């Protein structure tokens, strides 16, 4: 497994996660009243200001809202301002075949990457035509192989859909439909350190049997934590950074754009 960087296994690696950008083909299109290209640009400005030496950028699904080639090209161009290797996975709004076309002649969709003393595995939990997610057998095999082939490395596993309840009643039915299958694999490998996802447009940070469970803000609209029904939160767009230490420690935090005022327009095109 070739590494993406010049880091050795004695070096810490800095990762940045961008999630749920929901870009459209049209540059001036908005989601619930927010221009998603503008908000992604503002988040990337913040990343560039705060994180000078990024080793890997992760895009954890819903890069696009409309599944168009133009939206993926826009994401690739905007996120390309971050001078680091990148990896993408699809979410429920994405069109995997179009993503494939947008990622041509690149390693953007390579699912397994070694960096520092860690291995990052990107799982595809998207199901065509479905909002909830599911990890097909080949994804579970991919994961088991990635883990078993690098027992000496620490592991970060990424997907789009949430594999645990996050306390939002309306999101309960639209998470990962077979989380027990995911955890059955993860629980076999003590070198798993963290699971990272998108989809929920909010921050989650908890621990399950020694494994860190992390969800992150969207680069556009946020969902109100703890909400019974669909509700857009007032929190600003943001991203997550992760520092992966050679001894398996993981430091992470969420940063948000300051001064980004937004009032949701529930009458406009919905989520």
TrEMBL record:
Catalytic class of the enzyme: hydrolase
Ranges where the Calcineurin-like phosphoesterase domain occurs: 16-202
Membership in a protein family: Belongs to the cyclic nucleotide phosphodiesterase class-III family.
InterPro entries: Calcineurin-like_PHP, CNP_phosphodiesterase-III, GpdQ/CpdA-like, Metallo-depent_PP-like
Coiled coil start-end: none
Domain of life per record: Bacteria
Keywords of this entry: Hydrolase, Iron, Metal-binding
Pfam families linked to this entry: Metallophos
Protein name: 3',5'-cyclic-AMP phosphodiesterase
Gene, per the UniProt record: cpdA
Keyword Iron attached: yes
Protein EC: 3.1.4.53
A molecular function GO annotation: 3',5'-cyclic-AMP phosphodiesterase activity
Annotated organism of origin: Pseudomonas viciae
The keyword Kinase is assigned to this record: no
